[in-house]
């Protein structure tokens, strides 16, 4: 674990600790609590620049799932560092800006900053991971945090729409990328991106290489909002402006570009790569800039501008990959200039677009609108914001001496250079690229001017505004001022960047271009003579000014070209169609009828079990070794069958319940016959308690109506029922007919006394061999009893008993809650019987380890005693005598059982290990004390608690 | 004996499934108890019947019946008691609130 690992985790830590700190310091704006994270990380990343320069990329390994090839390996090379600096640098400024942008009293700040920190951590992890699977994980995490941030004002419908749209599109791309990574894994057998790069030459001929490339590109294009996947970005502008500045212009949307740059050493040298990356890039560039010109909303304008600029950087990385065709020659360096321009413009864009977004946010914040048709003349009241806007927009338009001018010139150089590449049909089509680039630059110039002069220029007309505009507070201005200053500094002294950032980043994108030990020499000059690029810029400015002046008067320039056909419509109706389609498919089988669901299950049981029985040849009637049957047993079987069959024909509730009880007692008799004393005891008490339960519920249950149903309905039910019954008979026969494997039961019989010190094997299995099962079982019981309590006693708000039907039949109800019973005989006998039953219950519990009995049986017996008491003396009497809260008793029981289990740890034994020994105690004699008994005590208490909770809760429900 | 027990198990399952498929909640609950009985006897029958004494080592018998299914069934009896009680309460609460115990009328609404 390296400091670099910690750097990735730090924002997550802040996301976790921040809300806690906020509780301790409720008056501090959450932003101040979060600000240290990005600032510290920025300083740390800066400190890594010289390290990377001198000793190569910092690397760290952290084994995670080595068997799957997934490890949290990180490394900070030039490219990763460049992005990490943008993430933390812009991140710091955005957090500072947001402190003034978001009102502490109106917004849910902790949510906002938790999402923001999640994003920051995910983004850092994305750009610093070497393992493609880890990268993918962080990639999706950025999509999710972006979703949460866009929907921050989730009460607005537009916000939710935008959030969902961005999520659907980017996650779709992410999945494609995931598939691409898996394909690369099948080719190379590793998820390490560095190893992919090393193996790139041998991969190129693999059939899966091209599909992998296309899938990875799909991920990159959706994330970086390339045409035609750009449609999510304008809608993402519903997010608070700091988020737009951070995620949707500086960092997250550049993740796709990062991916292209990162994977460039793997795929460069493929014609498809060059064409696709630069083709989509150029198309996005021109489309985005054209659309930006037609926007009236400041943020929408910036969104399309971002799309366009992302296209520009994307196309530059594509053009730069041409260098891979000329590895080892002078021409390689010639083409790699495009990469240099890409890296440089990446930085510049983050700077000037960040400043512009923040300015748009300030305008929105101080005037209440972002509509340029309503804005104008703000220059006089907001001079600082105006200056920032001018610097940012001029830089974006490519006007000297700002940084954008330099990268724009380098962009022109690159598009002019590519014409000379004698490959891939570039000779024929390459000439088009400079033309498109130039036209797009004209559009860029126009919308940059629109941004500034429509907002700040013109006449003062503040009557259309909701607020009286004034300059923003200092804290809000500080971040954009910083960025604007950087735009000038890097414009005048571009080589500040070239040594520290651009050269290492280029080395990461073109690892094979230079001989080992050499470094790229990047030197950027503001003035480089009267070149073609300069004339192109002059043309851009000239035509741009003309278009800007014509803009308002010429509808072509500001009205949307196509009203009806739009990609958004395709997206919307596609989504609606999918929704409807999946809905109708689901409705085919999810009908809401429980009977149908059960039919699926039962038909599956018949088919699966039946098919298995037949195919395995398991159905053989081999009666040898079957036990014989006596007359009494035959009587019990017949009684069981008859009582069971009679139930569906029963017409009254009481009859049905009594018949069910008869079957239960018959089963009890079978347990006696089949030498299962514990079962017989348990079943008998449960049947008895159940009858009481039935009678309690009786009070509330509806009358059993004769079901008026179609014959077809009944026949189907009968068919399925007989089918299941037949299959189960066959299963029983084949299971008892012959055993194909050794039973494990001998183990329990042999070791019960020696290992666990108990002679009642069933009880030993329950409390010792399979103690863990039993522990979870009493937990389930506890949950059931609490569930019943909640159903009956917990009344939720607005939970009024409307339309309740009174079908209570007091004569039939068991009178356990009201005044005590009048039956003298019952009360007299009960007094004695209760004492006897309780004593017997304790006996059963204690002797359970050696004789029939145990926690379950003892507890049920005790419950029976309490129930008898309730019946004869009333529930209040029980409460007076037994002053337990039975719900607490359940919890205590579970706790005792768990603590017994945990106690094993004190003796370095696994959970629920038991010990036992024999002691001689005067008067009582030889006595065995076992921890298993303690565990059984837990079971005992829980079961009493559960049973009494159930009975009392139902009995008291009125 | 195993043969007849198997038949009885089949009948218990048939009745249980038939009841569970019906419309009335009460019948459905009773159906689950029959299914439970069926399963218990099935587990017991699987390990062969009457092969020895009860699994109490104090009996000092030559052979004992299989204790494992018994432990499983003991667990199941108690659990099914809890589950049945829960079903009952769920059923009559649903009936009180919604005024019907017909499962076909208790289908969820569309906008869930």
Features:
heterodimer, A: 958 residues, mainly alpha, 4 domains, two-stranded antiparallel sheet, 37 helices, 4 strands, elongated, B: 112 residues, Helix Hairpins, 3 helices
Question: Can you put this structure into words, describing what you see?
Answer:
The complex is a heterodimer of chains A (958) and B (112). Helix content of chain A is 70%, strand content 2%. Chain A is mainly alpha-helical and 958 residues long. Chain A has 4 domains: 1-267, no CATH class; 271-557, no CATH class; 560-587; 758-794 and 807-958, no CATH class. In chain A, the strands form 2 sheets. A two-stranded antiparallel sheet of chain A has the order 1-2. In chain A, a hairpin with a 3-residue loop joins strand 3 and strand 4 (925-930). The model of chain A is unreliable at 800-819 (pLDDT under 50). Chain B is an all-alpha fold and 112 residues long. Chain B has one domain (2-51, 63-98): Helix Hairpins, CATH 1.10.287. The N and C termini of chain B lie far apart (51 Å). The interface between A and B is large, with 112 and 86 residues.
How much helix, percentage-wise, in residues of chain B? 55-70%
Portion in strands of chain B: under 5%
SSE arrangement of chain B, N to C: HHH
Unreliable stretches covering 5 or more consecutive residues of chain B: none
What's the CATH first level of chain B? Mainly Alpha
Q: How does the helix and strand content of chain B classify structurally?
A: mainly alpha
Task: Give the terminus-to-terminus CA distance of chain B.
Answer: 51 Å
What is the total tally of β strands of chain B?
Answer: 0
The rough form of chain A would be described as elongated
Shape descriptor of chain B reads elongated
Overview in brief:
Chain B: The chain crosses the membrane at residues 6-21, 69-92. The complex is a heterodimer of chains A (958) and B (112). Chain A has 958 residues and is mainly alpha-helical.
